[in-house]
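chain below, 655 aa
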Amino acid sequence: MWLLAGIIGLSSLLAYTGEQARAAVAAPAAAAAPVPAPEPIISAVCLGCHGNEGFSAPGANGQPRQLHVNKDKFEHSVHGKRECVECHKDITEIPHQNIGKHQVSCVQCHESLWDKAQKENKTKENAKLGVVVQMIERYMHSIHARPSMADQSRTNATCYNCHDAHYVYPKGTAERAEWRLNIPNACGQCHVKERADYATSVHGKEVLEKHNPKAAICSDCHTTHDIEDPSMDKTRLVITKNCGNCHAENLKSYLGTYHGQVNTLGFAYTAKCFDCHGNHKIQRVNDPTSTVFNGNRLETCRKCHTAATAGFVTFQPHANTHDFARYPALWITSKFMIALLIGVFAFFWAHSALWFYREYQDRKARIERPHVLTDKLSLAPVKHFQRFKPLWRVAHLCFALSVMTLVLTGMAVFYGDTEWAKDIMGLFGTPHAAGIVHRVAATVMLSIFFTQLVYFAVTLWKKRKTWDWFGPNSLVPRLQDGYDAVAMFKWFFGKGPRPVFDRWTYWEKFDYWAVFWGMGIIGGSGFMLAFPNATASILPGWVFNVATLIHGEEAFLAAVFLFTVHFFNNHLRPDKLPPPDIVMFTGAVPIEEFEREHGLEYQRLKDSGELDKYLVDAPSRQMTLGSRILGLTLIAFGLTLLVLVVIGLVGSLTG
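prediction:
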């Protein structure tokens, strides 16, 4: 066949050269006439030989080397309007000698054409050419463009190893779809084992057997022109992201897990799609050979969690909060947390806004604050009332620092897709290092909390016969707190006087008992996540899904509440300005302020004659200045964290 094609091609070539000869004879002989420039070689001439089906030449291995180019297919390709010699620049005459493998440079050709378009200001008309040049730039940095380990004289793969230069078609065409389905075979010329594995997978069967154009091929996972070594972290991250091009919902749910959050931060040491599902041999979940088949999951989990228990099997890596039928526990938890967030913030933000409004209106009306006449008490003006002893002040400072550290390290993972989170992780080095800091801070916070519980337990035991659980010195909520809250709202709306409070206001009690809730919810869920093997040995794996949701949402609630409501109540109220209130650093408050803030306690102590026991000298100037600097620093840090959390929230809602 190839001999017959060669004879036909030779006949065409002789006809072409015969025409040239006749033209030469017909021309007047003129020895002095200038030699005419050779006629340009057009594609039709090349196709006179190469367009014949079966046209070939003996190859280096003795086997026929196919040289046939399908004329119709070529002319419909993106290169069909170009002459063959624009690429085959080493062909300068017809017939040409058998020069072996032609030297064709796709890169040089496209870059030259783009340079010409730029010089002629025709980049808009050649926009597609510009895209190709960008692809070339990406290719030049890929592993395919580097020298082959086996043969340093050539690259691992060049353009024509993946593309058949004669048959490159635009996107959306039937020919392009056909070429796409053949990519696994093109890749398989070098990656033989991977192609064989792929052929057995759910993806491979869809492509190679069913010719499904939507099924995943090699380039869907590994990318196209900027392919890198799959052992590199950045490559593994890209492959994981590419899974979401087809499995968008599954990728979204995966990114909500700790595995996915670390992945989002740019680190590849936690489980990714192919770590669980496999890579080239991926099977459907219900296939007994699948690595995530129910009977195989525990073994798969143990690739990372070597001591994984049976509870890991029921972990739901793709659970979501909107599918009640499949994930009822997560759905209910989500709706509860949303209701809790809305309820807490609706009440306390309204409370803060109305308080600010009332203070503003009173100042606008020039209503003066009542104050105590200290000369009638025979007290020196410098005297302060001691509210908190040194131990409580140190505990409060350590608690505040641990909470802020927890917010910083925890929210950086929770909002891992933000740029600030990646910068924070850059400071810590890795999420693993940040996780250690997070656990240390949690240990400090919980230690302070439980130490306080022990202290109160011992104190209450000693005073068990005299202690009034609902008395003025108790932090236990009582009916009077409800009356005070109603009276406060009446004052907000100008319907009554500002209420007078005892030792603890209702918002201070809420702050205190909110910590109990937080320790139970955040601390409990955090403990389960920190010790997964112990948790999964007792509880089912879906508890991890619920714990992750609760831990993140409750941490968000605590952070935003602290840096808005708590800061306002204690530092940013108009009657507290300029901030900060330093009583938690000095332990003492001016007697005038104490009488104004806690009038009932002040009057009770005054009437009983116990007031003098709590009076101390005013803090030193150095103590006051240091407390103010410390307070302002903590407020600034807290408000900065608040801004970062808000940026993360907005990004998650709009992304």
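Residues 229-308 form one domain. Residues 1-5, 10-31, 370-380 have pLDDT under 50 and may be disordered.
thats it, cya
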